[in-house]
Amino acid sequence: MTETDSNVYDVVVLGAGPVGENVADRTRAAGLSTAVVESELVGGECSYWACMPSKALLRPVIAQSDARHLPGLAEAVQGPLDTARVLARRNEVTKDWHDDGQVSWLDGIGADLYRGHGRLAGDRTVEVTGPDGTRKVLTARHAVAVCTGSRAVVPDLPGIDQVKPWTSREATSAQAAPGRLVVVGGGVVATEMATAWQALGSRVTLLVRGKGLLNRMEPFVGEMVAQSLTEAGADVRTGTAVTSVTREDGTVVVVTDQGERIEADEILFATGRAPRSDDIGLDTIGLEPGSWLETDDSLRVRDSEWLYAVGDINHRVLLTHQGKYQARIAGAAIAARAFGSAEPDTGAWGAHAATADHGAVPQVVFTDPEAAAVGLSLAEAEQAGHRVRAVDYDISWIAGAYLYGEDYRGQARMVVDLEREILLGVTFVGPGVSELIHSATVAVVGQVPISRLWHAVPSYPTISEVWLRLLETFRDS
């Protein structure tokens, strides 16, 4: 029998990714003692296998593309990217998959870190099994926050284990570019990784089951990204599903429902996410192992007084920045309930309510061109029953866009609620548009009236002048 220790804290956090870190930061700032349990690296998926390494791979790709469209600079950057140096820089960004710096940060806020696998073991109790088999029992006076995130889903195809396919983890941490790469999927991971590896020397074939790419955004976004990938040399095939995949003498052989046979060196499945809740002891408190955890807007699990689920695990929005937003809300709500000085403000836009999860979520896709959106698309707004109008503008007509080069391609759309004359959603696609999205987020979250947006004057000559042109188009249509 291994040794068992017991420790009591105000709050126990399962998972030390960005979400868990932010819950711990907020509860510690409020004066609550906090323990954090992590089985892998402190900093989580985002720091080592998602946001940061993927953008480290993509930044040179986008910078080179921008340069190649600018006369005077284009001639100086005609050669291929230095793939080895790009990968080395990616390794620097991930600190070579060492988490010393983030461990120091946790120490700095006064949270106690427990390395090992954490499982719920009944009411307000977490059992941690360390790497050496030692068990520690942690008890939470006020709250346990589950911040274990999600994992990539690989389809259940015969022999898939022998193929050893890539998921997002392998795609962002690979130390060499495969000569031929098949990417299965049409969402953010698929399009970003297809963009990166095509530019870093792989011959990419992108297989998309649906009609187009990035189907949660406005249709013109996926169309423009697909066109750019094709021009870069990728083979983009829509309406195509994988029926079998094998590895023969080191070569991946993919067969599609069109009867096509495709050979590659590696295959990446970017086909969705599942909750990391299979083995965290949900059964000990009457919940289903492997399930998403439903919460209220304070991120407290339904029908529980002490269990919180924050970030991907609650399936509200699977984005790091939105998970960190939820963490700030959850930390404040936990503290308010712990001290009991006042009932938490869980009304719409209250201090303890994650209201922005409902229809005001921003996202950037770092493809070439970039895509950025916040709020509802036209189809989503119409489906929700709003009386709306889509207002479109070609960003290439903006003086600031012309400075990027004569062949700038981009599109903007705002979805206007005609009853209240506010914005329900905004979408941009084109070089440099990622820096536009926060202004759109402020307009959507703040429900700023169109009449007031006229007084938010964009600087000239910047791409942000598209705001003025959208307003003029709305006025004149």
From TrEMBL:
Record-annotated Pyridine nucleotide-disulphide oxidoreductase dimerisation domain positions: 361-467
Keyword Flavoprotein attributed: yes
Annotated Gene3D superfamilies: 3.30.390.30, FAD/NAD(P)-binding domain
InterPro entries, per database record: Class-I_Pyr_Nuc-Dis_Oxidored, FAD/NAD-bd_sf, FAD/NAD-binding_dom, FAD/NAD-linked_Rdtase_dimer_sf, Pyr_nuc-diS_OxRdtase, Pyr_nucl-diS_OxRdtase_dimer
UniProt entry keywords in alphabetical sequence: FAD, Flavoprotein, NAD
Every FAD/NAD(P)-binding domain range: 9-323
One Pfam family recorded for the sequence: Pyr_redox_dim
Keyword Metal-binding set for record: no
Origin superkingdom: Bacteria
Cofactor(s) named in the record: FAD
Sequence similarity: Belongs to the class-I pyridine nucleotide-disulfide oxidoreductase family.
Protein name (database record): NAD(P)/FAD-dependent oxidoreductase
Protein's organism: Streptomyces nigra
